[in-house]
Amino acid sequence: MSTLAHTMMTAARAADSGPGELDRYTYAEAPAGERAAIRSWNGPDNELGRVGRRGSASRGRGLHGQLVQQLGQMIVSGDLGADRPLVPEEIGQRFEVSRTVVRESLRVLEAKGLVSARPNVGTRVRPVSDWNLLDPDIIEWRAFGPQRDDQRRELSQLRWTIEPLAASLAAGHGREDLQQRLADMVEIMGHALGQGDAITCARADAEFHALLIQAAGNRMLEHLSGIVSAALHVSGGPVTGCDRPSEASLGHHARIVEALASGDSAGAEAAMRQLLVVHVEVEREVEREVDRVVPAPREH
């Protein structure tokens, strides 16, 4: 095993024990005891009572990040519909946070297109047509909410457009340094697969796809790399990479690297399309399992 592979495996295992691993899970998936402890929000418009403030131990972003996550999920899920007023004082009281935390959180949501703040009108939820649907947070919130099927289908369609093109361009760009790093990621995935290390395998997979887009030498494509990263994250995470037989996936990754080294643009594009077929098949299997079993949040 290379030094890089060993280092990445060790780092992945250490990072997985951190508090941020629960970030993707909504309050609806929290332990029953935690949900029961949340007070209801009195008043006719009690949608804000559906999601309670979670302890800082369950997230790695502090109170500000928690509030952004909670409100963002509620808006994207439809619990807070379009044109719904958001009163900072009520939010602060409900989630037991300061005015500063509320104000900064609403600014983040405004930058994502989820809310708007106007003089004499206040802060209101904006319609879906105004959302920045390419924002990684919004992608994740949609993918784990009621719009899950639509979001994953749209992400898959985007990947079929972005990644084969990136592979083709990368083969003609001749970036030997990036090609070597791509080969390293395939090596890491192979070692991780052999050891059943799903965490390292998934992270190496995500790094592979990010490097490939970088190797394309197209800065506009690079700006779309967050979409691919988000797609890998919400399409099953480690399940897509290593939790089940994936020798075929590993082989397609290796063929992409070989095509890049030989400058074979058509071969690189074809290998990427074959890899995406494998990803789609695994995603469908994951979705069938999700329909049968409601997943519980991870605990570390």
From TrEMBL:
Residues 61-128 form the HTH gntR-type domain. It holds the Pfam family FCD. It comes from the Bacteria. InterPro entries: GntR_C, TF_FadR/GntR_C, Tscrpt_reg_HTH_GntR, WH-like_DNA-bd_sf, WH_DNA-bd_sf. The keyword Nucleotide-binding does not apply. SMART domains: FCD, HTH_GNTR. Keywords: DNA-binding, Transcription, Transcription regulation. Transmembrane segments: none annotated. The keyword Plastid does not apply. This is FadR family transcriptional regulator. It comes from Streptomyces brevispora. The lineage of its organism: Bacteria, Bacillati, Actinomycetota, Actinomycetes, Kitasatosporales.
